[in-house]
Design brief:
- By secondary structure, this protein is α/β, with parallel strands linked by helices.
- It is built from 20 helices and 21 strands.
- The strands form 6 sheets. The chain has an 8-stranded mixed sheet with strand order 6-5-9-2-10-14-3-15, with helices on both faces. A 4-stranded antiparallel sheet has the order 18-19-20-21, covered by helices on one side.
- A hairpin with a 5-residue loop joins β11 and β12.
- It is elongated.
- It starts with 10 loop residues before the first helix and ends with a helix.
Length: 656
């Protein structure tokens, strides 16, 4: 036996003898540092204020939530030890080394991508997250990512990953051979037979992966579970799971594709103007917080309007919210922008219905037409004319964020368009932009102090700017003599989070700061709505039906997902709002005062009395019985399955 041949006995010695010391060093020097980085990132996420949890470094909860990643890397190390113990031919070994480094690079990129995703969206990757790739490569999305990260860290991370592939060779000066592709030293031989190698390494790999996949006992398994394990299990589970109990597959008759408006004795063809306020939640307005002077005009207007005090968006994401308000159905629960595809809306939308009644239609926005294929989406709604950023002369106006310019840019062109209709009824929609992150105010705006946090204060100033825009629109209609014959529907598309419950921005901020919106309908006196309020929870999916109701039309040929807010008790469908990221969170209002939030295993479910506790400070989930909690969860899963099936059916029908 040579000096390099192992002489120790026992399981540890036999395992160590699978590879020469240099090859062990190479594998460990590549994978252990990656494991440490992954553990540090996971620790940051599970202890972050973003998750609003009590997990502390060193606690049992912390250890339990890190264990999945520890055992995943143990399995990974054992797997590659087995591979290189079995691969003996030089050509095969070189191929194995290339694959090893490709896997290392892919894992490192996944660690970085997971962390960036968390920083940007406050949620973690799942099997559906890669749909975002389509949007990420839009120029404007890249600008948003750069603006939110405000650094070159992603670029540095990619450079570091490339260099890290040479780490083992650079560091290892002691153990031979220094490279995995090199043959073992002369005289060295493996102590175990091939079948024994397969058996021992497979046992470690399988046992470690099983432990890695186990629930963490904290109710946050999907959040803390190693991403490779979680994404794999998520993909497999989705394909194997049966439909939830209570699910009924939709048919074409269930889709409101053949609806039409029928005039009645009440019909009066008022103009319809929707003003959708970017990122404007109720808690940022004087309506929601009377002592907050951000929207004095809207508060004043509300006194002579129909106001829904508890209105919610269909999804806290602009394009999805526009689908809800224009088409009267729950938007597609995806991040792939499927609403821009043929059949992506699953309904005949309000602009199309009004066009059939002789209305002219137009849509105005100061954002670029390209972001999330807005032009296709707007045309799908049925608007004949689309006026995006590219349609306006920008001289004298300010760029406010990565997507476009200040809202005043579209004011005069829109008023000119309205005047050109010369008595013909029209429906038009404004989509404002200024309150979108980064919250950049136009030149000349005098900053006001609302809160001490600088970013939050800029946001509230942007909300105040949008309030002035609303006032200018309505004043413009008065000057044109169109005011008395126009129904104005003024609403937020969604809110904005500032860590009230740990999360920032809006896409997955499922608490009221993210999904409760101002909803004001200022209509002619003859409609009998002035000074009225609706206290029941309603959703912007009711906009189509409410406008038809106010115009005096009946809707025939199909049913939409909500009733007019003038008769909210007629709504038999559950009021639910899904997060933008798939399988991350859904808010469900099972009755007039309670709200249930399901997080798909990323967080424990939550339950609030939003009448007594509108800021959602006291979680009542523990007061629910197991049967009640399970019923609420199943109702969410059934709703999600039905929405997905409805949109899938609509797209299939469009492809025929």
């Amino acid at each position: 036996m040579t000096d390099t041949q192992p002489t120790r006995t026992g399981l540890r010695a036999r395992f160590a003898s699978l590879l020469p010391p240099g090859h062990w060093a190479y594998i460990l020097l590549q994978l252990v540092p990656l494991a440490i980085v992954d553990l540090l990132c996971t620790s940051m996420r599970i202890t972050s204020a973003t998750e609003d949890s009590d997990t502390r470094v060193g606690s049992w909860s912390w250890i339990a939530q890190l264990s999945s990643t520890v055992f995943f890397y143990l399995a990974l190390i054992a797997f590659w030890v087995g591979v290189f113990a079995l691969v003996r031919r030089r050509a095969s070994r070189r191929i194995a080394v290339i694959v090893f480094h490709l896997v290392f690079t892919a894992l490192a990129l996944l660690v970085v991508l997971t962390q960036i995703y968390f920083i940007l969206l406050d949620v973690t990757l799942n099997s559906e997250s890669f749909e975002l790739v389509k949007l990420i490569f839009q120029v404007n999305m890249l600008k948003i990512i750069q603006a939110e990260l405000q650094s070159f860290l992603p670029v540095l991370a990619v450079v570091f990953i490339i260099l890290a592939n040479f780490f083992a060779v650079i560091v290892n000066r002691r153990w031979k051979p220094r490279r995995l592709r090199d043959d073992p030293p002369t005289g060295w031989r493996r102590a175990q037979s091939g079948p024994a190698v397969v058996a021992s390494t497979s046992l470690v790999v399988i046992a470690s992966l099983v432990v890695s996949a186990l629930p963490n006992g904290q109710g946050t398994t999907n959040f803390s579970r190693n991403r490779v394990v979680s994404i794999t299990m998520d993909s497999v589970t989705k394909r194997l799971d049966d439909k939830p109990d209570g699910f009924t597959a939709p048919t074409r008759a269930d889709l409101p594709l053949d609806t039409r408006l029928v005039p009645t004795s009440r019909t009066k063809k008022y103009n319809v103007v929707q003003i959708v306020l970017e990122s404007q939640g109720i808690q940022a307005t004087s309506l929601g917080v009377p002592g907050l002077p951000t929207t004095p005009y809207l508060a004043s207007l509300a006194k002579e309007s129909l106001v829904a005090n508890r209105a919610y968006t269909g999804m806290p994401h602009t394009t999805k919210s526009l689908v809800a308000s224009n088409c009267g159905v729950a938007p597609p629960l995806d991040t792939s922008n499927s609403e821009a595809e043929p059949g992506g809306l699953a309904a005949k939308c309000l602009p199309t219905l009004l066009k059939e009644q002789g209305y002219a239609t137009s849509f105005f926005q100061t954002a670029t037409k390209n972001f999330e294929n807005r032009e296709k989406v707007v045309k799908g709604f049925g608007y004949d004319q689309f006026f995006p950023l590219e349609a306006f002369d920008k001289k004298g106006f300010s760029e406010t964020n990565t997507l476009g310019y200040e809202d005043d840019l579209m004011l005069q062109p829109s008023l000119d368009w309205a005047a050109e209709q010369d008595g013909k009824p029209f429906a038009m929609e404004y989509m404002t932009l200024t309150a979108h992150s980064e919250y950049v105010l136009p030149e000349g705006w005098k900053m006001r102090h609302y809160v001490d946090d600088e970013t939050h204060n800029h946001y509230l100033n942007a909300v105040a700017y949008q309030d002035q825009f609303v006032e200018q629109v309505i004043d413009g209609f008065k000057k044109l003599g169109l005011y008395d014959d126009t129904i104005f529907v003024i609403m937020g598309d969604h809110g904005e989070g500032f860590r009230e419950h740990g999360r920032r921005l809006h896409n997955d901020t499922i608490w009221n700061e993210g999904i409760q919106i101002p909803y004001v309908i200022h209509a002619p006196e003859a409609t009998g709505t002035q000074g009225k309020t609706v206290d029941a929870p309603v959703q912007n999916t009711a906009t189509l039906q409410t406008v038809a109701d106010l115009l005096g039309f009946d809707i025939v040929g199909g049913e939409y997902h909500a009733s007019s807010i003038l008769s909210p008790k007629d709504n038999e469908r559950p009021l639910m709002t899904g997060c933008w990221d798939i399988d991350q969170c859904v808010a469900y209002f099972p009755d007039d005062r309670h709200k249930y939030i399901y997080f798909f295993g990323y967080k424990k479910p939550q339950y609030y009395d939003v009448v007594a506790d509108p800021l959602e400070k006291k979680d009542l989930f523990e007061t629910l019985s197991d049967a009640e909690a399970e019923r609420l969860k199943q109702e969410v899963l059934v709703w999600q399955e039905e929405v997905n099936a409805t949109h899938e059916l609509s797209r299939r029908l469009a492809d025929r």
